[in-house]
Amino acid sequence: MDNNSAKVFKIGFLGMGTVAQGVWRHLQDNKDLMAKRFGAAYELAGVCVRDSSKKRGVCVPEDKITTDPMEIISDPSIDIVCELMGGIRQAREYTLAALKAGKVVVSANKALICNCGAEIFSAAKKYDGSYFFEASVAGGVPIIKVLREGLVANRFSLIYGILNGTCNYILTRMERENASYESILKDARRLGYVEADESLDVDGWDSAHKISILAYLAHGVWIKPENMLIQGIRDIRIEDLRWAKDFDRRVKLVASVRKNEHGAVFASVCPTLLPSTDVVANVNGVYNAVSMDGDIVGRTVHIGRGAGQDATASAVIADIGDAIKYLLGAPMQLSPVSDTLVNLAGLSDISACFYLRLEVKDEAGVLAMISAVLAGRNISIELLEQRKHENAGRAWLMLTTHITTEDAIKKACAELESLDEVYDSPFVMRIFDA
Length: 434
Ligand code: NAP
Ligand code: HSE
Fold this sequence. Notes:
By secondary structure, this protein is of the alpha/beta class. It is about 35% helix and about 25% strand. Helix 4 packs parallel to helix 5 (about 110-125), helix 5 (about 110-125) runs parallel beside helix 10 and helix 13 (about 365-375) packs antiparallel against helix 14. The longest helix is centred in the C-terminal third of the chain and has 19 residues, at about 310-325. The chain starts with 7 loop residues before the first strand and ends with a strand. About 45% of the residues are buried. The structure holds NADP nicotinamide-adenine-dinucleotide phosphate (NAP) and L-homoserine. NADP nicotinamide-adenine-dinucleotide phosphate binds near residues 17, 50, 84, 86 and 308.
């Protein structure tokens, strides 16, 4: 052993919730093995929480608990700070303070990275530190390492997949059991999948944060949620899942970043109809899948548990191992490199075939009205089907379109919504055949 490896690295935690407790437990239970793998011993040195009296699933000695984050951040003996508290404002403040104090920071906080990644990465550089964030995307799937290291030779025309475990868990159980959305969400929360603010999951924001990170790593550009198309899963009905099944497709919340032939990139998070033969379509429950088309490697697909205590802890522990290796003198990770200046594509540059479900008055002339609106936008209908509605006098209308643009669909839907014969806004899904 050299001098460095005799050092015991001290790890401090900001947050001791679902993820941090998993990290704590596995690092505590496997100290010798992990130290061997990391190349140095470590100590779980301190924990900052909001409520120090809360009962936790792991035993943290009382003298290691504080409610003052600065006790962890400014403790000169602490080498690695794990930010596992979530949120943006305070997490940003403490992360920047920890980097400034010379700590290596490990985080699973995708919302923070999506919103403040540029600032954090530049602070890490400025203070000659490092910031590790493997657990921020796809839970236990080491997708960031794969993208930055294993696939470094490639340019990526398309990255798509399932990036939210909660949504995939809900959709899978809705499809299999016809269970109510609320009861499934309750189970997902009990299993530790759901964000403190559940709308981050079900409204698509969490997937948007994650695809933003992948887009940055692949293309070197930060795409903010306001520049993406984001739609969550709240409006998906059993009728849509049944329709999909009848047409040999499955509904998934798909996050994607695509580079078009002009080199412009576009990111979106949308309920999507995938062919039932697509590998990603068959990834169920809390599992995530990331499919990446590299110009050299071709397509690779990576699957694993995307949320929950142990899966996420696995990724955080891998980062702690890398942090220790970095502190022992291993080189920094590779930076994302964009080979050209990348532009963002607009809605009129993005084409797809679409599925629309409309709740309409069941009376003469309605179909003609709807097809006139679509024709007015040059949208051609591929399939059209009317299904029975639970209320007399109403009908469900399911239709698919030939290829058209996001812009045309958006405008057509606004027009359809304004018709007296159409109840509510049309529910839209993209049809994906990659
Ligand atoms: P969590 O269970 O809500 O735990 C958050 C922890 O942070 C709690 O211990 C809380 O303290 C502490 N905390 C929050 N605000 C604080 C503040 N201002 N000062 C001090 N402590 C504070 O969250 P989680 O599920 O473990 O998630 C943690 C992070 O990992 C988030 O960024 C999340 O997005 C990310 N993540 C989660 C998963 C997952 O499956 N759960 C997967 C991947 C990534 P108290 O306990 O005292 O309230
Ligand atoms: N709430 C997130 C999910 C946790 O369900 O995917 C993992 O990032």
